[in-house]
Design a protein that fits this description.
The protein is of the alpha+beta class and 256 residues long. It has helices at 2-12, 37-47, 133-137, 151-158, 168-174, 177-189, 191-194, 197-206, 224-234, and strands at residues 15-18, 29-34, 68-73, 80-85, 98-101, 104-107, 121-124, 127-130, 163-164, 213-214, 217-219, 238-240, 247-249. A six-stranded mixed beta sheet has the order 1-2-8-7-4-3, sandwiched between helices. Strand 10 and strand 11 (217-219) form a beta hairpin. Helix 6 packs parallel to helix 9 (224-234). It starts with a helix and ends in a 7-residue tail after the last strand.
Length: 256
Amino acid sequence: MFLDQEARLKNARPNETDFDGDWKPDEDELLVLDNSDEVTDVVNAAIGNAVALPRINTTNFENEQIKALITCEGAAGAERLLIQRFTGQQLLRRKRAYLLDGNNFRELDEAAFTLGSSITCIVEDGELKFDSYHNLRAIFDVVDFYEEATDADIDTIAAHASINIPDVDGFKDDATQTIRKLVHKVMNSGVLDAHTSQEIHDRAADTGLTIDLINGVLQVPDDKALARQFFRFLDDSLYEAALSGQRYVTNSKRAI
């Protein structure tokens, strides 16, 4: 069953592409990440002595906090893991389930669960392959791809010579999760060091975005929506269509 689900996923998504945390895959694309330490630990455990792993307490199955069901396939040295996400909805003891026993139905009173209808991810050749970030993060810790700026990070970017945040404390209080993620990405991209304030101002104007420039310093708008546009532009996720002149926000930042 796991092999069939793997085949369906790969056949439906034959084109593998690196995941950068900024966009959703097209219908024919399979996202790829290098294995994290956590994933590597799971691989080593799966291809090692499985009998040596801690056993689950089947009498207390519902509280075992199981995140995934995994099977290992392939020859030694070329193993791959096929992984299904596991949720509480798959536990049958939370519902009234009946089994056909001979000619009669009896109520299920043993610990039992259903298997998923699709595979969540594949681990092979040192890589993690998946089609849904939402489902993947329910199994593995991949938060680094959507890390948010802390208050200390906001203090750091506010101290940059190229920009001015008029009310830093107010900005922190109002900063949504989206803004904090954008601030974090802008900090790590080096865009404020790679381009002058004047250059950023002029290129923003070319896309129809007005950014105030006072004494050579870019002014971060007080308005939350405008501040979000400001950081989207610095993150290269705000652009103007060449033909229509319409401005768009994009989740896809693949180079063509």
